[in-house]
Amino acid sequence: MSAPFTGHVFLGMSVDGFIARLDGDIAWLTGGADENAGPDDGEGGDFGFGEFVGGIDALVMGRGTYDVIAPFGEWPYQGRPVHVLSTTLEPGADARITVHRTFDEAVEAATSAGYRRVYVDGGRTVHQFLRAGLVADLTLSRVPVLIGTGHEQSSIHAVDVHDRLLAACLK
Q1: What is the pLDDT of residues 39-75, one digit of tens each?
Q2: Domain range spanning residue 85?
Q3: Partners of 118 in the beta sheet?
Q4: Which of 96, 100, 113, 152 has the highest Cβ tally under 10 A?
Q5: What is the pLDDT averaged over residues 78-99?
């Protein structure tokens, strides 16, 4: 599949390879209730996430990812269009997002809007973009914490990911 935009993936994961606890909790990654307690790359930074988000035009994420960030006190993607893939979320349920029922519908919306760089987030959504050949780079940031058990980012293993694609930042 071709599209006039490129997809970009940024994954934060624990040293033991998890992207979330089994219950979906990512407080270890975001700092939870303490906004200043998020991961620190040792240089007072956020592993490049802020810069990454600053360089994207829009986001496409899955429903599970949306459900994790929806309750955040401060919307992390202020000023950026957010598209959510969901077959159950009602359109208009959240004014901050646009709901799409299918992958193809989301790709068409991103194309029609003229986006150039799209942040792709969420396991199944990342997998769909990878399979369609729409991911230009994949950044993996290892956060110095062990959470023991949780959800792995298995979607990057379900598709051959070639060296030219990986812009891995293992910090």
Answers
A1: 666 666 677 788 888 999 999 999 989 998 899 888 9
A2: 40-150
A3: 7, 58
A4: 100
A5: 95
Task: Identify the CATH number of the domain in which residue 115 sits.
Answer: 3.40.430.10
Tell me what percent of the residues of the chain surpass a pLDDT of 70: 80
Whole-number average pLDDT of the chain: 83
Give CA–CA dist 119/128, Å, rounded.
13
- Residues facing 98 on adjacent strands: 83
Which residue in 108, 82, 95, 149 sits closest to 1, CA to CA? 108
Is 11 part of any domain?
A: no
Q: Is residue 54 part of a domain?
A: yes
Cα–Cα distance for residue pair 73/35, rounded to 1 Å: 10
Residues 6+ apart with CB under 8 A from 148: 16
Instruction: Give the SS3 label for residue 34.
Output: coil
Residue whose structure tokens are 């159950």: 88
Question: Once rounded to an integer, what is the mean pLDDT over residues 88-100?
Answer: 95
